[in-house]
């Protein structure tokens, strides 16, 4: 049995189409009327978009129904699916808490409400029947004001029991004019001891070397091996792992063919840059993590050995995995010496 670590998954994009459609039918008259038939909804929801901007628009549909009241419903189904179908042992779940607050409140009241959102998500993710070690990454957003993003960084530092890092999301076209602001926010986050990742070098418009020094992992980063391979030695030296989400690039029109993806992996391996394979939006794509792995193998992008290296890298670069080893090696040790386990367990000894 293999257990996996998922480092890049959005709370909104994690909702699989069937769960979202059922939610509309049961609880949302207007959206239920807009999407009366499931097959048509699935086709609409999962179809490829032309650009990243167009793709990100789709997130607003899910965000509009993820409220303080409904979040436990969605988080429960997310973890249940991830445990049963994906064998996840570890999950970093990311989202912008501000976008789950009540839109009818003032900006400052919404900022105050963010703490409730993080606690609701954190408590909903603690499920004894689906024991995945789950932590949150809070996303600053390129379309939100500075005050909101700064409050997101503060909140991440306030709740280490639920939050393991910060991210920057929301469309990379918008970074340019506010670059100094985002650098300052990352610098501030690092000064508070926060772990950092950021959506960067995903598209040709999203290449900002100025942000690289502040990131411990790079969300996507595929344009580095494709367009700026000269940066790879420094990425390797800084031990910055790339969070590569293969299906995304074909849903956003960022890549056109698999040979480009093969180049990403080949150049990173050759330079000693670690890659964690992730889903980004497993629900929106209808592609779960084991299928991302399988697709890369069957389409000859990776060998089994290379896949395993990426799976190991995911645990190594996890911001909050609490054990020195990954669970597969812990399990195999246990299987090799079950006596140790039996002696340690009073229940088993008495039996
Ligand atoms: Zn993402």
Description:
- The chain has helices spanning 17-27, 29-34, 38-46, 52-63, 71-86, 107-124, 146-158, 179-191, 223-227, 232-237, 246-251, 258-271, 282-285, 289-298, 304-316, 327-336, 338-344, 346-350, and strands spanning 4-10, 88-95, 133-141, 163-169, 199-200, 217-220, 241-244, 275-277.
- By secondary structure, it is an alpha/beta fold.
- The protein has one domain (4-320): Metal-dependent hydrolases (TIM Barrel, Alpha-Beta Barrel).
- Helix 5 (71-86) packs parallel to helix 6 (107-124).
- The longest helix is centred in the N-terminal third of the chain and has 18 residues, at 107-124.
- Residues 344-351 have low confidence and may be disordered.
- Zinc ion binds at residues 8, 10, 199, 219, 280.
- Zinc ion is lined by residues 8, 10, 199, 219, 280.
Question: How is the biggest beta sheet arranged?
Answer: 4 strands, parallel
Terminal Cα separation, in Å? 27 Å
Low-pLDDT runs of 5+ residues are 344-351
Number of strands: 8
Quickly name the level 1 CATH class. Alpha Beta
Number of helices: 18
What order do the strands of the largest sheet run in, or round the barrel if closed? 1-2-3-4
The outline comes out as globular
The name of the CATH architecture is: Alpha-Beta Barrel
Q: Kindly state the mean pLDDT as a whole number? A: 91
Q: What's the CATH H-level homologous superfamily?
A: Metal-dependent hydrolases
Distinct ligand kinds: zinc ion
* Structural Rg: 20 Å
- Count of folded domains: 1
Structural class: alpha/beta
Name the helix and strand elements from N-terminus to C-terminus, one letter apiece: EHHHHHEHEHEHEEHHEHHEHHHHHH
CATH-derived topology? TIM Barrel
